[in-house]
């Protein structure tokens, strides 16, 4: 499984409520927050929904 570094680069203000909930479930609360997750099918679906707000990088372990 690969690890991903996810950064919130656009604001949540004015977004759909389900997109805001998805970002919070990823652990992103405010702009420029960074979290690391391992790639799973559930994570892939969440990222597909809100990818326009994120910067996603693969992390070398």
From TrEMBL:
Molecular function GO labels: structural constituent of ribosome
Alphabetical list of InterPro entries matching this protein: Ribo_uL30_ferredoxin-like_sf, Ribosomal_uL30_bac-type, Ribosomal_uL30_ferredoxin-like
GO BP, sorted A to Z: translation
Keywords: Ribonucleoprotein, Ribosomal protein
One family name in Pfam for this protein: Ribosomal_L30
The keyword Ribonucleoprotein belongs to this UniProt entry's keyword annotation: yes
Source domain of life: Bacteria
Annotated Gene Ontology cellular component terms: cytosolic large ribosomal subunit
Domain Large ribosomal subunit protein uL30-like ferredoxin-like fold: 4-53
Similarity-based family: Belongs to the universal ribosomal protein uL30 family.
Subunit record text: Part of the 50S ribosomal subunit.
Record's protein name: Large ribosomal subunit protein uL30
Taxonomic placement: Bacteria, Fusobacteriati, Fusobacteriota, Fusobacteriia, Fusobacteriales
